Amino acid sequence: MGTEEQFLQDYQPREYPSVALAVDLVVFAVAGGVLQAALIRRGGHPFQGALALPGGFVRADEDALHAAWRELAEETGLDLGAHRAHVEQLATYSDPKRDPRMRVVSVAHLALLATDGKTLPDLNPGSDAASAQWQPVHTVLANEKLAFDHQDILTDALDRLAGKMEYTLTAARLVPEEFTLSQLRHVYDAVWGATMDPGNFTRKMTPVLADTGRKEPRAKGAPATVFSVDKDFISPPLTRPAAAQRPGAADS
Fold first, then answer.
1. Confidence (pTM)
2. Please, which residues have CB within 8 angstroms of residue 188's CB and are 6 or more apart in sequence?
3. Is residue 180 part of a domain?
4. Which one, out of 2, 8, 29, 185, has a CA that is 20 to 30 A from the CA of 200?
5. pLDDT in the model for residue 207
6. pLDDT at residue 251 above 50?
């Protein structure tokens, strides 16, 4: 059979079908009680003018994660390294017809961006994006048709986030490292598209949070206690309201 060195010298990659590798990003943040996603408006073909997730092709000298961070910065101006952000791989999308140009396999990533619940980082379009904006997720899923298979990717990302929030403190990745119960509850309201009962929410969450000893003044009533995450898992888990079981069901 010869040596491995000889095998590699004789190997002909061109004999196999070409498949391009790409990345797409779902970046979630909460502001004004609404779950938002960073989306672009495509400036060129295919799907010119359509809403899409930030993303692009992986270069020969980089891995998928580095490509994701680069493409996000190029298309939206958003540098995740400058913010409190959590990034994880979502799934791989490989339908042979997902891209009309050629066979493209995409590794999608989910990013959760912490905010104060009031403001979002500015987005600035670049690369092949005609515009870049924060868009309300539930409204987009209910009323828009995204480019490629990005509707499916966005739906899967929302389902991943909404499901993990039942039994983990993933929601705390969307607020500052130290937060009030109201800030955390508003994340649940925004993602699940349902209003959580404040009393029940407090009873469920207090055992997994650590009291920082600080208070935050508020417009009405006594100052709010400031917490941090103490335990990663919620036991027993929270139960999503029935109306919020299907991602995109809420109409923001």
1. 0.91
2. 165, 171, 196, 201, 238
3. yes
4. 29
5. 96
6. no
Neighbours of 35 (CB within 10 A): 24
Contact criterion met (CB below 8 Å) for 187 and 175: yes
36: nearest Cα among 164, 116, 137: 137
Amino acid at 148: F
> In this structure, what are the phi and psi dihedrals at residue 181, rounded to the nearest 5 degrees?
-65, -35
* Tokens (6 digits) for 225: 């206690």
Query: Chain-centre distance of CA 33, in angstroms?
Result: 16
**Structural tokens at position 94:** 């490989």
108 lies in the same domain as 200: no
**Phi, psi torsion values for 216, nearest 5 degrees:** -120, 125
**Chain centre to alpha carbon of residue 2:** 49
Same domain? 59 vs 132? yes
State how far the Cα of 193 lies from the Cα of 43, in Å rounded to an integer. 31
